[in-house]
Task: inverse folding
């Protein structure tokens, strides 16, 4: 799930570097710098998305 153009890019990914494979999010600015990231992993992807929403993520219109 990402935004296009000059907007920040949001990524939701499964962290395979930890024992329990948690969901995490990362926000990248157009210049390629990471400007935000989840501070913890989430067992459920929906919980991860809800945390990202509290940090500025807007779900795409369906």
Result:
């Amino acid at each position: 799930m990402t935004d296009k153009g000059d907007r920040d890019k949001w990524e939701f990914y499964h962290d395979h570097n930890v024992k329990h494979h948690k969901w995490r999010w990362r926000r990248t600015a157009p210049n390629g710098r990471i400007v935000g990231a989840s501070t913890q992993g989430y067992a459920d992807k929906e919980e991860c998305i809800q945390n990202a929403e509290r940090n500025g993520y807007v779900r795409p219109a369906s």
In short: The longest strand covers residues 9-15. The chain has one domain: 9-53. The first helix runs from residue 45 to 53. Strands lie at 9-15, 22-28, 34-37.
